[in-house]
Design brief:
single chain, 144 residues, mainly beta, 4-stranded antiparallel β-sheet, 1 helix, 9 strands, 3% helix
């Protein structure tokens, strides 16, 4: 409705620019706390790191016997006391499978990991280096 040059407005809020009405947007009139609604919280899916791989079992190879290509190994595994156990290819040793039995070593496998146990290790050798006498040579002096 307009009468001449004057504009008649039924609602005086219509004359206010929207930028000045930001308080009613930030603090809604019909909200009991008169606070802006909280932004929705999006739950973040936390991924736990994979557990570290299990360490290989502690095994001492006591002997290996091979007959017609079928090998057996006599071992002592930690946690089994002093009990000697015979294993063949495919047997389980502390969660690891016996992959191969060779004349002087036992190979265990778990997934993509393998570990070798030798029948005779270098630990059986003396750890002290062998001392050898130093040769002394006679220095010759030039003749005058």
């Amino acid at each position: 409705m307009s009468t001449g040059n004057a504009v008649v407005v039924n609602n005086p809020v219509e004359l206010q620019p929207l930028e000045q009405l930001s308080t009613t947007r930030d603090k809604p009139l019909f909200s009991p706390a008169r606070r802006q609604p909280a932004k929705p919280v999006v739950p973040v899916a936390r991924q736990e790191p994979p557990p570290p791989p299990a360490p290989p079992p502690s095994v001492v190879v006591l002997g290996i016997v091979s007959e017609n290509g079928d090998g057996q190994a006599a071992i002592r595994a930690a946690g089994k006391g002093d009990k000697v156990v015979r294993v063949r290819t495919g047997d389980d040793v502390g969660g690891w499978k016996v992959e191969r039995i060779e004349p002087r070593r036992l190979v265990l496998k778990q997934g993509e990991r393998t570990v070798d146990f030798a029948l005779f290790t270098t630990a059986a050798k003396p750890s002290k280096p062998v001392e050898r006498p130093i040769r002394q040579t006679k220095a010759t002096s030039p003749s005058n």
